[in-house]
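ESCALATION

Customer reports they have been waiting on this structure for their group meeting. Please prioritize. Original submission:
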Amino acid sequence: MARRHVGAAGFLQHDVLEQIISAGRDQIEVTRSLHQVVTATQAQLQATQLTTTEGGQAHLDTLRDIVKSSEAQIRIATELRESIQHILTDVIGTPLEEVSGHLLRTLGEVVQQQLEELQNLITTALGEADTAQQRAKLQQVRDDTETLQVQVAHEQSERNLTQLELLGAVALERVRELEEGGRTHAAQRAELEQKAESTCQLISSLEQQEEQNLAKLANLEKNELKATERQHVLEARVQQTETELSHHHVSKQQE
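Update from on-call: job pushed to the front of the queue and completed.
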């Protein structure tokens, strides 16, 4: 709340910078998740190539498509992150009115689209996974991506809420200025009060949405913890199975 003391222009300038920085952070997370999908799928592809039959060619082609699509998304995310860095450099010191609101909306939409495409890639990869360990690893990436999606929605909701609060305050301040200047007309006042009321309704709606986002985020964090525990159990079972197979192989050799 203390940031409001810097004035409306300073506050909005700070908010613009926060939005651009947030989009840059999201690109880093998207790139990290895409690399995890590529790593898991390439490992599966190498293992499958050694044992595949003619009938398994479609499976191999799907795995290759997943890797190819993921690498293309990594290039896009990297280019966008570099563009964001340039935008951030240009925005610092730029008058607020010259910063395009369309640019900020586009950044948010691109991040959401990237996350949706990432989820689609993970879903396809899960359908092609051959082992419990591969599925657990990909499921962990999916859980992380879902958490990031909720966080992005949460951040966007917070920004919208803050901007609406500021607009509401500006509208009420304008009413007071008209009254003090003796220039109040019934139509002007009614229009401004209606705008202020609409803003309050939007704020209430966004607050409800924010509560839902926070609840989803808490639930996803619980699921993420459970998924991590499941992955540890699966890894322990895989290790145990490998140990038993090794002992069995040694026993056979001794016989």
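Sent to customer with the following note: Residues 186-254 form the longest helix (69 residues).
Escalation resolved.
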